[in-house]
Amino acid sequence: MRAEESHFADLVQGRAQQFQIPLYQRTYSWTEKQLAQMWGDILDQSELVGTDVAASTHFLGSVVLAPSPQTDATFPRWLVVDGQQRMTTLSLALAAIRDHIADTQPDEAERIDEEYLINKRKKGGDHFRLLPTQADRPQYAAHVRAVRSEQVSGDRIAGAYRYFRRKLVELAEADAPAASRDALRIEQAITSRLSLVTVTAERGDNVHRIFESLNNTGLKLSQADLLRNYLFMRLPTRGEQVYESHWLPLQSSLSNNELEQLMWLQLVLDGDDRVRRQDLYTAQQQRFERGVATEVPAEADIESYVEELHRRSKHFRRIIRPEEEPDSHLRAHLKRLQDWQAVVTYPALMVVLDMHDRRNIDAVEAARAMAYIESFLVRRTICRVPTANLNRIFQSVPAQLPQAQGVAEGLHQLLSAENRSWPDDEELRDKIRSAPFYQYGRPNQRRLVLQRMEESYDHPEPVDFASAQLTIEHVMPQSPGAEWLRMLDADTTEGESTEDLHKRLQHTLGNLTLTGINSELSNHPFERKQGLLEGSHLEMNRRIAATERWGAEEILARADDLADRAIRMWPAPLRNAGRAERSRDWRLAHQVLAALPHGTWTSYGDLAAFIGSGAQAVGVHLANTEGVANAYRVLNADGKIADGFRWTGSDGGDVRARLSADGIDFTVTGAADSAQRLNVDDLSLLLGKAEGEFTEEASSAGPEQTGKETRAARFLHQLVADDVPATVSAVRELLARWEKLGGWIGYGAGEVTTSAFLMLGQAGAPGRGIWPLTLYPGSGRGGVAEVVFAHMANREPFIDRAQRMELLNRLNAMDGVSLPEGKLELRPSIRLSVLEDDANRERLYATLAWFRDRWEERDLA
User: Fold this and answer.
1) Of 220, 417, 517, 730, which one has the greatest count of Cβ atoms within 10 A?
2) What sign for the dihedral angle of Cα 332, 336, 339, 341?
């Protein structure tokens, strides 16, 4: 190879020649982010055109070329191994300049065309100096020929051309010096002031290895990009035909991310059940080259793989787009699994659809197989089985599925096997009665379970759940008033307080329903809710309304009815396949106690509510079970050590001294600091974080509901109803100051309690932003600002614990704020009332400015 520094003009000017983008290259991918960066560099260089400041030329990157198999002495053709995004972008910019000056300077427009864009005397594809990959050719040719074809929405080629045309018009109309607005100066900047390193390979060089090892400085190459390169570099004679017949339809029907996922699934379906998606390229390369002495698989093998990928894509498309499934029963199953976001099940679903399409099974058996998959997921969620091993379970399905029976029965047997943890009817019934369903799994999954429960009533006029604005309602509210507490007091058992009973039952399935009038139901007494629920279109709500009261007995009776329905809807595992250990309740307790951060404690009631048990049973278990980590950090609700506390196993010494050594502070009354207590919500977050689950009910951003009160207005109305005017005024000022700092306000979807998020980052771009605080009205108890350490811990630069600790210390400098260090992984709260103090507000604004600065500097470290 040889390398030399050059400019775009040096590369493409001169005699007729062509730069070809190979089939294995991805399509044109630059977005406005990359275009804006290049445009800024071009404008900077345009100001230096005609000066002697040669050293200030801008280095654009490298272009790697290799001789094309189609080259000849009179018309050189080059493969662009790397740099196609830059070359395509510059060519489109020159086409935009040409068209911008075509009416006023036609001779210059013609010169640009002939020097950089076309081979004037060549016909067909040879007419173009740059020939993109096939998928991009029609749009690129239309823009170079200045004959607009019908543009596909979102087409990147057309988007880049339009971007440069827009910028040229903006520049021409701007209040700027004439020299800066001169399109020909911009042309000269592009062609003579953007420097490139051109690397030219000789014949015989392994251009695939060159491409594979390059550090791409535009958009990072995906696993699918690398594998596509590998495939088509090994199809020297069949590449065009395979591309047209199989690859182009495949690429057109799936996004790059979906294509990569399909490639990974193909490996899993071929029996590689341990491959990770990030290792896709290497793993598939090794499969092709295993046992091939030359390390170059035959073209027939590559072609066969692409054909199979194309065939499998039809199954994959029906999984990710269930509306394309022609059979109504299969479509319903696929839609439910899609709504569940059951990505882990794709290997098993691909097997089922493949066997159905090959006519090895009929639609009835395929639907039964999908019902087993759905039941496996739903029962595990209701019974709070950790999700950590789901990927491994479903990736093993293609290799482990029994061959001696049908796919449905084979899946039934496989998922029922030892240690698969598919809960049976007895366990399902018990957990529906006792487990805090509302605090496990994802919000969409909880809604789907209740939706299926409602559908089981076979209402003659079924609800259109797709369009209905339904949310989950606690019939017995999370913040019960005096009437609710009086009713619950009559239902308590010996040794159980009203507070413990409320914690134990509030989040169970028996106390949850779906409604579109959540804000109207609110925390009202049951008699008020009865009247509202009676008019509901949902059968489950009418049945609740027909009940005289709503206490423990009624909640458990409804739980039993829902359990009967769940057992009918979601099939049980096989009894003879062996079961995993059944005492998962205590394992959950052991896991969450082991995860208690330094400087925190919890109560018997909180731990009991978390696992779906009773406070007394928890106390007995901890007192009699040796080796439970942090068992001594479970205290009474008032923060006192339980009377008669004793160590199990070896003597741990004075328990209070042990707690103090663990960072727990005590008040003058001898009670542990309540700020260090982890309640049931904290415990759920603590274990959910370890298992990768998220329990957020509201989104930080989203469209407003038309025809209704906006979320922003709803938040302020709830705040005004709950807090004193001084607090409301302080919160309004906080929101305004945050926007002045460059942030924006997102509002949650809740109606009973609508939250406000102090956001940084691009609005409407999920997963890219960050927020330090979420503000909540207090539902009668005074509003709070939740410090979302749990969220920050997954975002740079606050992945670094020291950064979160700095934030905690800054917040604790406010009077009346004392956040414990043990909650750096959680979401502790600050009372909004502390903002009534002028000095506290100023300290908070300084802290938020510091937070913004740290986030904006995250990429500069």
Assistant:
1) 730
2) negative
pLDDT at residue 322, as a whole number: 96
User: Would you state the structure tokens that stand for residue 815, as one six-digit string?
Assistant: 């009077």
d(CA 442, CA 746): 20
Structural element, H or E, at residue 262: helix 256-269
Element (H, E) at 683: helix 680-690
- Stated as kind and residue range, the H or E segment containing 430 is helix 425-434
* 3-state SS record for 84-109: HHHHHHHHHHHHHHHHHCCCCCHHHH
Cβ neighbours for 710, distance < 8 A, ≥ 6 positions apart: 704, 747
The pLDDT of 136-154, averaged and rounded, is 75
Among 422, 441, 467, the domain-final residue is 422
The backbone region for 61, taken as left when phi is positive above 0, alpha when psi lies in -120 to 50, beta otherwise, is left
Report how far residue 780's alpha carbon sits from residue 480's, in angstroms, rounded to the nearest whole number.
Answer: 10
Domain edge (last residue) among 195, 221, 247:
221
Residue 394: which H helix or E strand, with range? Answer: helix 390-395
Are 197 and 159 members of one domain?
yes
Cis (ω within 30 of 0) for the bond into 725? no
pTM of the predicted protein model = 0.64
Residues 556 and 599 in one domain: no
**What is the side-by-side order of every strand in the sheet holding 194-200?**
2-7, 194-200, 58-67, 77-82, 18-20, 130-131
Higher pLDDT, 855 or 617: 855
Q: Which domain holds residue 519?
A: 427-577
Q: Which residues neighbour 700 within 8 Å (Cβ) at sequence distance 6 or greater?
A: 746, 747, 748, 757, 759, 769, 771, 774
Q: Are residues 145 and 28 in the same domain?
A: yes
**Number of residues that make up the chain:** 861
What is the C-alpha separation between 380 and 522, in angstroms, rounded? 30
Q: Which has the minimum average pLDDT: 264-273, 458-467, 504-513, 524-533?
A: 458-467
| Number of domains making up the chain | 6
* The predicted structure's pLDDT at residue 218: 42
Mean pLDDT confidence for 353-361: 91
